[in-house]
Specification:
- The complex is a heterodimer.
- Helices cover 7% and strands 30% of the residues of chain A.
- Chain A has one helix and eight strands; from the N terminus they run ββαββββββ.
- By secondary structure, chain B is α/β, with parallel strands linked by helices.
- Classes of the chains: A mainly beta, B alpha/beta.
- Chains A and B meet through loops of A and loops of B.
């Protein structure tokens, strides 16, 4: 599915961040999830159990499908975090490792 | 309107009632289960999920043996639920650890092990401290490397484990359904009265006749028991649990206050408070659980809590189960405890057949509430 921005949202100032190193152009006020969807990055994580791909779904903080790593912190709900300049987003692959044994 | 045709009415459809009902039905009984609705105090949906032996039975060696026996036949229960009911309950019994942060806690555990050893009757499997031993901090970290530097020692028991208690409840209910148990949710029992040679169980949705009755309603037994000549002095004991996000594997063992589920979440317990029937959350208790968790497993500081809840344990005055048949209402039994997961195996595979046969055996006599009369005397 191809998403496009509403005309009225184009006025906001531009914001640039990266997802797995790829530069993503967004607008102030975008959530990370909507910015990733607009950039065509559909699958934003692989699940902890089966490894299946997942994408942002409810966009309102309920479904937890849009978990990504943001600036080194895993399991962030991309739909609840506004984009900011220089932010480093990574696809989440599997469960986060809090203990490095 | 009355209905007939039941051998046994089980009051309560949580883990205790379901284990007994499933066991009765497997033995060929025609069983009806009268359960409350989703608003019931449902320890079965709020518990921690340990199959735990360590430390159980200080003061009653029969309970230590009963608990150990249940842990030993739990693999049979899990295998049967998998093969007959198609539900994998995720049983794992790697052994269990209680990590200590203070010498006082370790010394208290060491004394408990000695007491339980002395209380045990030699030659009866499962008596005494059930192989619990104190290990050093180094030994504990060799077993479970994610234990932190503040841990000064631990108790270890090779028979401990854990299971998914929600799958257990589902497996037992699937079995009840398959075996033709008449499961009736939303039918709280108002009272039980004698009717001919059997009993009439009165609910808001009609009466049910059964030859025998098993009270297995947890805290719901309290209003029903006295009129049936049963002494069931239980009270609610509130426990709170924190659950982390799913994490990569970091716990190989079961811990008395921690376990990592098959899905990766780490469950953090366990509190105990006398809050009556109030199931709300006490944030100070949650904070205390989290702070202690970070001291024992420092890596958990990086994990986020995604859920927390409280539930009410069913606590007897000495913490041990209560099993009894009424003297004045023969055929009316009570089965209650705070360890519905650990004891599910013996409830289903050993206690239920005794009820079906008509009376509790001598080995269950120590669990009679008569012991409380001795305490009061």
């Amino acid at each position: 599915m191809q998403f496009s921005r509403l005309e009225s949202a184009n006025a906001a100032s531009p914001v640039r961040f990266t997802c797995n190193g790829q530069v993503v152009e967004a607008r102030a006020g975008d959530s990370v999830a909507t910015a990733l969807l607009l950039a065509g990055i559909g699958s934003t994580r692989d699940t902890a159990l089966s490894g299946e791909g997942r994408a942002p779904y409810c966009l309102m903080g309920v479904c937890f499908e849009c978990l990504v790593e943001i600036d080194g912190v895993p399991n962030q709900q991309a739909c609840l975090v506004p984009v900011s300049d220089g932010m480093s987003v990574r696809r989440q692959e599997g469960a986060p490792q809090v203990w490095d044994g | 309107m009355s209905e007939t045709g039941y051998d046994i009415a089980v009051i309560g459809g949580g883990l205790v009632g379901s284990a007994v009902a499933w066991g009765l039905a497997r033995g060929g009984a025609r069983v009806v289960v009268l359960d409350e609705g989703d608003d019931a105090f449902r320890a079965s949906r709020g518990n921690f999920g340990l199959v735990w032996v360590q430390g159980k039975g200080d003061g009653l060696a029969d309970y230590a043996a009963w608990t150990r026996g249940s842990a030993e036949i739990w693999p049979d229960l899990a295998a049967t639920l998998a093969s007959e009911e198609g539900v994998d309950v995720g049983l794992r019994q790697p052994g269990g650890i209680e990590a200590f942060l203070t010498d006082a806690d370790r010394d208290a555990a060491a004394l408990e092990i000695k007491r339980m050893h002395n209380q045990g009757l030699p030659g009866r499997p499962g008596d005494g401290a059930n192989d619990t031993k104190i290990i050093s901090a180094e030994e504990a970290r060799a077993l479970e490397p994610s234990l932190g530097p503040e841990v000064i020692g631990a108790a270890f028991n090779p028979h401990d484990g854990h299971v998914n208690p929600l799958y257990l409840l589902r497996g037992l209910h699937a079995g009840m359904h398959r075996l033709g148990v008449d499961y009736r949710p939303g039918q709280g029992v108002a009272r039980v009265a004698r009717d001919g040679a059997g009993y009439r169980v009165v609910t808001a949705m009609g009466d049910i006749l059964a030859d025998k009755v098993v009270l297995a309603a947890g805290l719901g037994n309290i209003p029903l028991a006295p009129a049936l000549g049963l002494n069931v002095p239980t009270r609610p004991d509130r426990g709170q649990i924190l659950v982390t996000e799913r994490l990569a594997p970091m716990l190989d063992y079961a811990h008395v206050n921690f376990r990592q589920t098959e899905e990766g979440t780490v469950m953090i317990g366990a509190s105990s408070s006398d809050a009556g029937f109030d199931t709300s959350l006490d944030i100070d208790t949650s904070a205390r659980l989290a702070a202690r968790a970070r001291r024992i497993f420092p890596a958990l500081a990086k994990a986020r809590i995604v859920r927390t809840w409280s539930a009410l344990r069913i606590m007897s005055p000495d913490g041990f189960p209560i099993y009894d048949e009424s003297e004045t209402y023969p055929g009316v039994f009570v089965v209650t405890c705070h360890s519905g997961v650990t004891l599910a195996a013996v409830h289903a595979l050993e206690l239920a057949p005794e009820i079906l046969a008509g009376q509790l055996s001598d080995r269950l006599a120590p669990f009679s509430p008569k012991r409380f009369e001795k305490l009061e005397a």
